[in-house]
Design brief:
Length: about 160
Amino acid sequence: MYNSAENFYNSNSGSKSSSGNKLYASSDLRKKIFAGIYIFTLFLVGTMFIIYIGQILKINQYNYQILELEDKLSQLEENNEELQIKLASETSLDKIEKTARNRLHMVEAEKRTIVFYNNRQIEKTQFVANIPEERFFIARIYDKIVERLVKVQAKSPE
């Protein structure tokens, strides 16, 4: 019975039904295209939203790490200041002298002696070759450097 009603509808509509089907088909195609564009747009917006939320979470995580590192830095700076104060107090001359006298049982020297060491040779160096001294420019510079390095000078701490 259903088939006969359909045949009846198709036979009565005639040429109008073929143009109506075309309009219906193009309207249906437009709806499908619009639905596809709509779904694609929703997918794109959703993806962008998820990426945006991910970036916000990363920024928050990095900000938290920055805060932790700044706290650690301030603690280390405070510790450094305390150590510098302790170093200054431990290396003061009064503290060193007190430690030397009390813990190490040292006494102050009664007589101060200055010792000079001179390692100059009195004899003039004779060269094997018979070349004038003016040509030994580099040898003379080397001798002056060695002479300055060998000289030891002790001075009083006064």
